[in-house]
């Protein structure tokens, strides 16, 4: 394992498998226990540095760190005078002075965790940066798929929606293909990045054609403001062409699962009956998120400091 | 590199052969039956991965063979409880599995291959504390090589082996390594 | 009076060059005299002319001043630089351009030629008083909203027409703003992967195509700033073949660097227009070699540390260029055989001086001509150390790179501004 987890390219297949296996072992070690706490990171300090609101991701990392007995500091920089970049470096130096062993960073600017990693000694974990990556989300998605389907190699995953602006999609494409899954991106052409043809994926504009051959359907959140920028004509048209409703869910193979990184727009990209169906792994994804993040923190911070 | 270092190392006669290992396991199984006496159903053998786990399963099998009573077996991975992670670096985790009936109120015998500093056993005791509240905890090891760094001793010892700190005790078990043997390598005796 | 011994004008036969009263008075072998400078192994070129420099004064004197920028220019072999108008206040009145011009005169290291803004406050809606700037002491001939595109086609047409009366030229920053909202880097496979908003080549090419048609329609001169794409080179080639009065410049960084550098997320590589692909770099070199692109212009853009030590998206675009421009041209054009030394003189001195209507710059190395020249040691190479730069800023994308060529001396009207590689004031 490298020192930081900035993007999924930091993980080769062996590393990624190690994270997933470690996650499974941690879940097993904690299953049914009254004391859901391990002493592994006692005396280590983890800072949750969130420049962007994301209560669910922050809580997930916080719980993961606390279950490993790390000291956790939540540093919410949103709303303070952190519109200018200089503050990122100042913040980094402050954290450095506090002796942070691990920094979990969420930022609206792509690449901010890379910059941070150049300025601090501790390990940096990217908790989502701009439209770049969200590696722990991809790890928890991969873990959830493996948990439900028993494998990743050869699993057919359809990633549906706003790929262009989605860090979740970028991380999942990289990680799932590293782990042997076959990824198909499904979106209107306006929501696919230029150059997507160089990605190791299949691209389709037709959700109905993809669903019968999908083991996993991963729905991405579509933000309504994209409508105003003419990425698609209307929410209704988007939902009709790319939304997952009960009728579409019915054509999925028997064991296929439906995933969503949350938060969902029910009625937009996913219908309530789909989100609440037995195929849905949305609740499991949240639970797995804590275990995956424990595994990542253990693997990055558990060992000898450099 | 000198010429001599390119020569194959002379074969080291094993400290314990496959037959020795089998005999030692049988002896410890008998001792456990004797100690646990009427409480055999209460006994849980908990192996410390990696090689403590198959040893615990073998002991259980022998106890059942000798006494006719099946014995519960589990494993507890101690990696997340180690106090020397910073020195050794992280490693992949192994299974932690306890019998469905748990360990509360029972006699837990920790099983490991080699007893050295005692730090693994301490970590295992910490892990057990988070997993339940046994009536008593005992320790069985295949080899005790001395050099304790903590006030810990084994209740059942397959073989006591005086060693120097620089030597290595290598335990090979068929389930993992393809054959049973215990080697003493390196350093000065 | 100076006598330069055994120097090779344009890298050709070695001669001695005598400079008297600001002019070249003799060029022949075996001259005698006092104040001798040994030119053995050195190449003499006409003093370089930059069409595109940001000197930041007035307004951001923490990043650069006319004086520090002039010193950087002289060290780079320049004898004239055009100072872009996006200062604070904007150089959109006779008063501001005269101030910049005067500061340049006081610094006395290069001729600082102010560029006037095309529109008031670079706002893109109302023409600035172009005539007043042209008639001022600064004698402005190049007008540009650089940093912003004159995007309104009707306004661009009027600007092109209006400057005809001033013998001026509009230097367009070609960037269709609606196609580059939030743009951070070249749009392509890398921007998609890095999650940085793309700046499509078409946003530059569409404006160039529009502007060459407008220039032809109204019979005006057009200059295109910092051409960065292969498609732009094709459009310029087409326009020149049709007789459009269009000239164009390319920056040193677009001749050398590619968008691969964005993968570091280090904003020292953030620039506008952005670094493009290797195919674009090759097309730009070919375009400069065949004359489709007329000039190398630095787009020297100093930025204070806090404007670059940040997240990529928060950083200001731009990079230093004056001190390394000639070295980059040597590496990318001379060494591969795309341009000889006369070609270098043409693209870095003769043509930019002609575009800017500078009468005493870009002149040949010949008896009777103004003694604006530089001496280059082509055999020298060195690793760029940003801390050693004369610019007040440190945002050089060449830090740590070994580059060929060293400007040993620069003469402005016969007065050495640089000797032995050191600025003389």
Description:
- The complex is a heterotrimer of chains A (306), B (189) and C (425).
- With 306 residues, chain A is an alpha/beta fold.
- In chain A, 40% of the residues lie in helices and 15% in strands.
- Chain A has 2 domains: 8-132 and 286-301, Rossmann fold (3-Layer(aba) Sandwich); 135-281, Aspartate/ornithine carbamoyltransferase (Rossmann fold), CATH 3.40.50.1370.
- Chain A is built from 12 helices and 9 strands.
- In chain A, the strands form 2 sheets. In chain A, strands 7-6-5-8-9 form a 5-stranded parallel sheet. A 4-stranded parallel sheet of chain A has the order 2-1-3-4, with helices on both faces.
- Chain A is globular, with a radius of gyration of 19 Å.
- The longest helix of chain B has 19 residues, at 18-36.
- Chain B contains 5 helices and 7 strands.
- In chain B, helix 1 crosses helix 2 (52-67).
- Chain B is of the alpha/beta class and 189 residues long.
- The two termini of chain C are 19 Å apart.
- In chain C, the strands form 4 sheets. In chain C, strands 1, 2, 3, 4, 5, 16, 17, 18 and 19 form a 9-stranded mixed sheet that branches.
- The mean pLDDT of chain C is 97.
- In chain C, helix 4 (153-162) crosses helix 6 (201-218).
- With 425 residues, chain C is of the alpha/beta class.
- Chain C has a single domain, classed as Alpha-Beta Barrel (TIM Barrel).
- At the A-C interface, helix 3 and helix 4 of A face helix 5 of C.
Provide the descriptors you would attach to this structure in a database record.
heterotrimer; B: 189 residues; alpha/beta; Rossmann fold; 5-stranded parallel beta sheet; two-stranded antiparallel sheet; 30% helix; 22% strand; globular; disordered N terminus; C: 425 residues; TIM Barrel; 9-stranded mixed beta sheet; 11 helices
């Amino acid at each position: 394992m490298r020192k930081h987890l900035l993007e999924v390219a930091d993980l080769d297949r062996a590393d990624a498998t190690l994270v997933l296996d470690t996650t499974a072992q941690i879940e097993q070690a904690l299953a049914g226990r009254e004391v859901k706490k391990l002493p592994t990171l006692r005396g280590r300090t983890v800072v949750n540095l969130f420049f962007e609101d994301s209560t669910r991701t922050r809580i997930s990392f916080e719980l993961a760190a606390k279950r490993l007995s790390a000291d956790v500091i939540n540093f919410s920089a949103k709303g303070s005078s952190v519109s200018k970049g200089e503050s990122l470096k100042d913040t980094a130096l402050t954290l450095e002075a506090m002796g942070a062993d691990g920094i979990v960073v969420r930022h609206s600017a792509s690449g901010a965790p890379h910059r941070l990693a150049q300025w601090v000694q501790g390990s940096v974990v990217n908790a989502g940066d701009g439209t770049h990556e969200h590696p722990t989300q991809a790890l928890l998605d991969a873990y959830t798929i493996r948990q439900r389907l028993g494998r990743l190699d050869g699993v057919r995953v359809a990633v549906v929606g706003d790929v262009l602006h989605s860090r979740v999609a970028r991380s999942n494409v990289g990680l799932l293909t590293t782990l042997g899954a076959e990824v198909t991106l499904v979106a209107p052409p306006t929501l696919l990045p230029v150059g997507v043809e160089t990605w190791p994926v299949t691209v389709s504009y037709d959700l109905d054609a993809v669903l019968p051959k999908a083991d996993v359907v991963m729905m991405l959140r579509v933000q309504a403001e994209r409508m105003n920028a003419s990425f698609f004509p209307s929410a209704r048209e988007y939902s009709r062409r790319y939304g997952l409703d009960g009728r579409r869910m019915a054509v999925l193979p028997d064991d296929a699962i439906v995933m969503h990184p949350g938060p969902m727009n029910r009625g937009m990209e996913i219908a309530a009956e789909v989100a609440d169906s037995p195929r849905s792994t949305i609740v499991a994804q949240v639970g797995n998120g804590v275990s995956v993040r424990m595994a990542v923190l253990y693997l990055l911070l558990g060992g000898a400091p450099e | 590199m000198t010429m001599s270092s390119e020569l194959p190392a002379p074969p080291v006669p094993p400290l314990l052969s496959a037959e020795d290992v089998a005999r030692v396991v049988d002896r410890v199984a008998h001792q456990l039956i004797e100690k646990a006496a009427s409480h055999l159903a209460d006994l849980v053998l908990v192996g410390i991965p990696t090689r403590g786990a198959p040893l615990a399963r073998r002991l259980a099998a022998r106890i059942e063979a000798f006494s006719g009573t099946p014995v519960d077996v589990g494993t507890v991975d101690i990696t997340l409880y180690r106090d020397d992670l910073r020195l050794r670096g992280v490693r992949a985790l192994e299974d932690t599995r306890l019998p469905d009936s748990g360990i509360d109120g029972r006699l837990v015998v920790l099983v490991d291959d080699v007893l050295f500093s005692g730090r693994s056993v301490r970590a295992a005791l910490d892990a057990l504390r988070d997993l339940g509240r046994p009536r008593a905890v005992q320790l069985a090891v295949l080899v005790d090589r001395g050099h304790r760094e903590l006030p810990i001793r084994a209740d059942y010892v397959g073989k006591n082996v005086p060693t120097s700190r620089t030597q290595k005790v290598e335990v090979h078990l068929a389930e993992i390594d393809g054959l049973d043997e215990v080697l003493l390598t390196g350093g000065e005796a | 009076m100076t006598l330069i011994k055994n120097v090779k004008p344009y890298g050709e036969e070695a001669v001695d060059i005598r400079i008297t009263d600001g002019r070249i008075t003799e060029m022949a072998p075996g001259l005698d005299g006092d104040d001798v400078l040994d030119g053995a192994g050195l190449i003499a070129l006409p003093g370089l002319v930059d069409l595109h420099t940001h000197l930041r004064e007035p307004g951001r004197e923490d990043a650069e001043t006319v004086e520090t920028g002039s010193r950087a220019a002289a060290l780079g072999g320049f004898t004239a630089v055009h100072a872009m108008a996006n200062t604070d206040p904007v150089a959109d009145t006779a008063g501001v351009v005269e101030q910049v011009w005067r500061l340049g005169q006081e610094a006395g290291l290069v001729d600082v030629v102010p560029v006037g803004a095309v529109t008031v406050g670079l706002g893109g809606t109302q023409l600035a008083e172009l005539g007043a700037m042209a008639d001022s002491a600064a004698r402005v001939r190049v007008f540009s909203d650089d940093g912003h595109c004159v995007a309104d086609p009707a306004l661009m047409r009027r600007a092109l027409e209006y400057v005809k009366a001033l013998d001026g030229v509009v230097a367009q920053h070609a960037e269709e703003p609606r196609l580059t909202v939030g743009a951070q880097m070249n749009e392509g496979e890398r921007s998609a992967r890095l999650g940085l908003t793309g700046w499509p080549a078409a946003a530059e090419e569409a404006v160039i195509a529009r502007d060459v048609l407008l220039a032809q329609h109204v019979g005006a001169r057009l200059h295109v700033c910092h051409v960065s794409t292969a498609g732009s080179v094709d459009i310029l080639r087409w326009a020149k073949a049709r007789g459009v009065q269009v000239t164009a410049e390319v920056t040193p960084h677009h001749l050398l660097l590619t968008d691969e550098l964005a993968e570091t997320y280090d904003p020292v590589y953030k620039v506008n227009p952005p670094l493009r692909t290797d195919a674009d770099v090759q097309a730009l070199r070919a375009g400069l070699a065949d004359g489709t692109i007329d000039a190398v212009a630095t787009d020297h853009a100093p930025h204070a540390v806090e404007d670059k030590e940040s997240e990529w998206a928060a950083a200001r675009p731009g990079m230093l260029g004056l001190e390394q421009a000639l070295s980059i041209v040597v590496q990318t054009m001379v060494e591969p055989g795309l341009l000889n030394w006369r070609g270098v003189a043409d693209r870095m001195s003769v043509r930019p001086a002609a575009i800017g209507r500078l009468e005493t710059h870009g002149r040949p190395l010949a008896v009777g001509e103004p003694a604006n020249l530089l001496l280059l040691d082509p055999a020298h190479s060195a690793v760029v150390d940003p801390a050693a730069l004369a610019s007040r800023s440190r945002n050089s994308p060449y830090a740590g790179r070994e580059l060929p060529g060293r400007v040993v001396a620069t003469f402005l009207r016969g007065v050495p501004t640089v000797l032995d590689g050191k600025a003389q004031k």
